[in-house]
Amino acid sequence: MRALCWNGVNDLRVETVADPEILNPQDVILKVRLTTTCGSDLHLIDGLIPTMREGDVLGHEFMGEIVDVGRDVTKVKRGDRVVVPSFIACGKCWYCAHDLYSLCDTSHPKPELQEPLLGYPTAGIYAYSHAFGGYAGSHAEYVRVPFADTDCFVVPDGLPDEDALFISDAAPTGFMGADFCNIQRGDVIAVWGCGGVGLMAQQSAMILGAERVIAINQYPERLAQAEAFGATPLDFTKVDVVEALRELTGGRGPDACIDAVGMEADGTGTQHAYDRIKQALYIETDRGAALRQAMLAVRKGGTLSILGVYGVLDKFPLGLLMNKGVTVRTAQQHGQAYVPRLLDHALRGELTPAALATHRFSLEDSPAGYRMFKHKEDGCLRAVFAP
Amino acid sequence: MSTAVRQDPPGAALDASAHAAVTIDRPADDLRTLWLDPRTQARIWAHFADVTARDDGTADWIARGPAGGQYRWRTKIMATSPDDIRWASLDGADVPNTGALALRPAPGDRGTELHLDVRFDPPGGIIGKAASKLFHIVPGEIVRKALYQFRALALTGEIPTTDPQPAARQGGADR
């Protein structure tokens, strides 16, 4: 089959690789219908995540049709159109039983690579380095999906592929971030980032009853999309964000702040210059401007919900969190806990993930799609590949 | 999982022991039965050795060393009780060793704690080689991964793998 392979820093090529096969009895093979870029892929492509290997097939956000089924699969069948969360979860361990699917205790084939870094291994994930399991990704004609009964969700008739696609990752990640905020009547939620995850977090906060959602970014077309979703846009290059948030909340500060930016945050001023230099020298992997701003802006006793992907960030003002009594919630997405509900929201038109699919490419043109996505050319929010 | 590779006293570089623990949400009896199933032994140690276990409690091991080396031995289960399984290599082992699995109730409703101890005692013939240098992985990793794989098998009926289909191409270098 054809697949998009990583061959080194900023070296992506579409190559012919072996077709995946059923390896374990609960596996299925999916014929990929749509697969998309994610901001976290840029960390891999830019070489900021170790344990990548030449030839790694990229892609962790996808949907498709089941074409082959392992002997112990009982709930889904050949021909089903399904969406699959990016973290692989068994559905049987203590973590899965507690809806902490991205912490699954059994789905990582190489726990020894990750345990020294984190203390305990997480769930495996498609195409996110060998320290995260080394599973082949979805930017390919076919992908192997383990634990299909837990991880494949049938897409209801009437919901287009483009909507179902982002219920693989951007939507459940964003929804989880809003869920972490424990939104109460009258709450104001500020969201840093207007990429796929940020926009989905904004829509989710509204679904969960936020009084007002404020979207922080610098790209006019992304701020326009946030505004179209009903959020109040704030351009951090034009205003003092912390001051503006204070003003917009009657001096209280947002009840919760969601960081949907992560390690490659853009910022302004000397802290940003410091972060960029350290990242360029590989002294630290993360910049973190958005996170610092969110910590300052959040109201006393508020919630900081961290969705951005981080590696090693060495300057973290912990005292700020402690003295303000801030609750920090964070995780990689526990998608399996949210997907059924999100499919319903999308079917009812309350969640509109297809708005993220601004540019479509064939698999053969996927390297060009990544270039466009990385440099945000032509207002590219997400590049979608149809193998 | 917690692990402590115990520090050998000075001058005792020719042995090594490793310990690891996991908690599995299953009754001890079920886990003990699964552990004693010869097919289980072959699967959970596959990262370290080819194991052929038999119903009589013996097992033949071929462990892989660096640069294609192999070490062979036969083990026999020496004692079992509801909360303990102990085994040891028989005479003639390339790398004499002993192992013990203890099963203890976990607090609350967490199931059963498994504590695995393995000790390698390389004979004088392998001068200057600590056990941690004998194999292609260190003893701590041998026991941690065996328990991770046992937990996966106990809970899901399978062991996670990407072999022979890792994300990368065959022979692709780490970057």
How would you characterize the overall build of this protein?
Chain A has 387 residues and is α/β, with parallel strands linked by helices. In chain A, 29% of the residues lie in helices and 20% in strands. In chain A, the strands form four sheets. In chain A, strands 3, 5, 6, 9, 10, 17 and 18 form a seven-stranded mixed β-sheet that branches. A six-stranded parallel β-sheet of chain A has the order 13-12-11-14-15-16, sandwiched between helices. In chain A, a hairpin with a 5-residue loop joins strand 1 and strand 2. Chain A is globular, with a radius of gyration of 20 Å. Chain A starts with a strand and ends with a strand. Chain B has 175 residues and is of the alpha+beta class. Chain B has a single domain, classed as Alpha-D-Glucose-1,6-Bisphosphate, Chain A, domain 4 (2-Layer Sandwich). Chain B has helices at residues 28-36, 38-44, 131-134, 139-156, and strands at 2-3, 16-24, 49-53, 58-64, 70-81, 84-89, 97-105, 112-120. In chain B, a hairpin with a 7-residue loop joins strand 6 and strand 7 (97-105). The A-B interface holds A 5, 8-9, 17-18, 20-21, 23-26, 47, 51-57, 72, 88, 90, 92-94, 97, 105-109, 111-112, 115, 120-121, 124, 127, 130, 133-137, 144, 146-147 and B 1, 23, 25, 110-111, 137, 141, 144-145, 148, 151-152, 155-163, 165-169, 172-175.
End-to-end gap of chain A: 10 Å
Number of DSSP helices of chain B?
4
CATH domain class name of chain B = Alpha Beta
The CATH superfamily of the largest domain in chain A is Medium-chain alcohol dehydrogenases, catalytic domain
The percentage of residues in β strands of chain B lies in 25-35%
CA radius of gyration of chain A is 20 Å
Number of strands of chain B: 8
Interface with most residues? A-B, 47 and 30 residues
What overall form of chain A do the CA principal axes indicate? globular
Instruction: State the helix count of chain A.
Output: 14
Mean pLDDT of chain A: 92
Broad structural category of chain A:
alpha/beta
Question: Structural class, from secondary structure content of chain B?
Answer: alpha+beta
The first-level CATH class name of the largest domain in chain A: Alpha Beta
Strand coverage percent of chain A: 15-25%
The helix content of chain A is 25-40%
Oligomeric form = heterodimer
Mean of all residue-level pLDDT scores of chain B:
86
